[in-house]
Amino acid sequence: MSTTPHPRRPGRRATRVLAAAASLATLGALAAALPASAGQDQAGGGKGGKKRTVDVQLLSFNDFHGNLQPPAGSSGQVTEKQHDGTEKKIDAGGVEYLATSLRTARKAHPYSVTAAAGDLIGASPLLSGLFHDEPTVQAMNKLDLDVSSVGNHEFDEGAKELARIQNGGCHPKDGCFEKDGKGKPKKFEGADYPYLAANVTDEKTGKPILKPYWVWKHKGVKVGFIGVTLEGTPDIVSAEGIKGLKFHDEIKTVNKYAEILDKQGVKSIVTLIHEGGAPASQSYNYDCDSPGAGDGISGPITDIAKGITPKVDALVTGHTHAAYVCTIPDPAGKPRMVTSASSYGKLYTDTTLTYDRRTKDIVRTSVKSANHVVSREQAKAPDMTSLINRWDKLAAPIANKPVGYISGDIPGRGAGVPEAPLGDLIADAQLAHAKSLDPEADLALMNPGGIRSDLVHKASGSEGDGVVTYGEAFTVQPFSNTVNLVDLTGAQLVTALKQQVGGANQASPKILQVSEGLTYTLDMTKSGADRVVTDSIKLNGKALDPAATYRVALNSFLAGGGDGFPELGKGTKPLVGADDLKAFNDYLAANSSADKPIAPPKADRITIVK
């Protein structure tokens, strides 16, 4: 893969500046038209009449996942803590509103840079996913995004596809999706912004597959950005997508490139890292530094932040889809801002970095940051509406096709509980598909991260309430995994269930969604693998036999041991079925109608002890 990003074209802000300059006859006329201090900070004793410090606005977001249209249901809401201690749900997100929010925030800020912390693409709704996320990249270009780290989902379609996303070109199989004014295929231009992948190297060359860092420069101010994804990316993506790549330790990588930037004279450094934490509250505006600095957050990012060199002045994070603005001390004990803006474009973070022209570094004690809601009550950005309408016209024939009917909301991604009603429905659908291949199929397991949204009863368009469209089903399961059948012993199943809360998943449990007939107790008062009560595991009312062999349905990702479930990767006698979306749609078609819609499952297969 090329390490050179797509040549950066002038953003809309740069275009406006050029247009303004062009309207004047000469540079001399321009100088005469402006006051002496224009284009500079106000005099304050600095060299050349400039103040010693200048405030740089850093706008950031993460985990957009191709959500061009406002996310549906609970996936499109943020929780806001009120002054009286109560919580309020606010509808948020959608690129039309995100564009308006960012453009409004930039006003009166001559020093403004916009950055993202990965997963801008991948696991996307149909409007973007159907076109290999080209619509989202176009939207990010229009947003004037300056730089982003890669996330694990940037590797969903492999390293070669990521190179195309960066550098442009039509898809190798599906070709060009759009046509120019003459009706000829229109080449996809790629991302204006550089994707940074400092800790992802080619196994053969040992070099980063994309640029490891990038330096933003404006009127003598320089801020370096280092981009990394989580070291554990191989555990949560398809093995085929990362073949030939190595993922390295986040701390060591960032420290290495921070040293390189420092030697180049770049003293102000921000790390964009696709790894995150678990905040103590789901409210985006809670105090993460109460009672002390960083006390309101736990998870992988806390140890990473404490290990990254003090040369780095701020961390923009992601991956956990959480919202937080925390001050976590660096290895020297100095306060350092660590932020995350939830997901799907529902929030953006506005951070003020005070840049000292003399030291070329950030004055840490002056750093301020806050998350802001991307409200749907503000005006839509017309250019984003136009972009959505253009791609929606291409997707409509497929997206609007009805595939099933539901009698109420079926929470999935936004359920907020270990066992989601939509998770049960998907597991049942996969078991049904498995039984059509092998009547001896016993049960199905579904990874929670593979459920990307909710099914909402209210109509999203003209289809009518309770109608599930192909586009809505695609949004729920966009990965095109196959439904696989494997043989596992009862003992292996017990081990796999314990891996939900032990091993790689002990710090952040991943509770598998189970098909009807499989029941057990999860005792959250215990720790690690002991949380799974072995004696409680039953299949169709009978205790699981450790020595018996069971025929298990699971998607190809889990069948490969993904998501920290290596035991599931040891299955034998594999049989590959259709893709999971087809299995889901077939189940909806066979088990629902306008007169008899599917009711939301009770989600009572796993007994939770708190």
UniProtKB/TrEMBL annotation:
GO terms for molecular function: 5'-nucleotidase activity; nucleotide binding; UDP-sugar diphosphatase activity. This is Bifunctional metallophosphatase/5'-nucleotidase. InterPro entries: 5'-Nucleotdase_C (IPR008334), 5'-Nucleotdase_C_sf (IPR036907), 5_nucleotidase/apyrase (IPR006179), Calcineurin-like_PHP (IPR004843), Metallo-depent_PP-like (IPR029052), TAT_signal (IPR006311), YhcR_MPP (IPR041831). Keywords: Hydrolase, Nucleotide-binding, Signal. GO terms for biological process: nucleotide catabolic process. Residues 61-322 form the Calcineurin-like phosphoesterase domain. Residues 1-38 form the signal peptide. Residues 412-567 form the 5'-Nucleotidase C-terminal domain. Pfam families: 5_nucleotid_C, Metallophos. Residues 80-90 have a biased composition (Basic and acidic residues). Residues 65-90 are annotated as: Disordered. Belongs to the 5'-nucleotidase family. It comes from Streptomyces alboniger. GO terms for cellular component: outer membrane-bounded periplasmic space.
